[in-house]
Amino acid sequence: MLIGQIIASKGAAVVTASSDATIADVVRVLKDKRIGAIVISSEDDQIDGIISERDITRGLADHGAALLDKKVRELMTSEVVTCGPDDGVEKLMQDMTSGRFRHMPVVQNGRLMGIISIGDVVKHRLHELETEAHMLQDYIAGGA
Prior knowledge:
With about 140 residues, this protein is an alpha+beta fold. It has 5 helices and 5 strands; from the N terminus they run H-E-H-E-E-H-H-E-E-H. The chain has a single domain, classed as CBS-domain, CATH 3.10.580. It has helices spanning about 5-10, 25-35, 55-65, 90-100, 120-144, and strands at about 15, 35-40, 50, 105-110, 110-115. Strands 1-2-3 form a 3-stranded mixed beta sheet. A two-stranded antiparallel sheet has the order 4-5.
């Protein structure tokens, strides 16, 4: 299975924020949108960084409540690992596991075209397994 297939089924919308936004602003967006990470972008299709709930949790441990007034650029991950729509899900899972992150922007021709989470991968894989199980049941029932 390819990353592009998952993006096609879930949609390509990506929530972005400016590196000038405050951590408090980002926390509100994460809560309101019920998401775990936001791509940081000065332009709609360019990636400057990414910030996740995990980054914010670590920042709270280091800075306490003062973190909420800091700018996103002070906490975001600047070296973002990305994937492409033609990449396989197996490689994505390996990269996420070895990098210990759960969200990866999808880039095509240098432009942001989506974001994929480990939850998206699990959901798609469960759907595949259900489909296979139904096909096997139908095959067995048909052969009886």
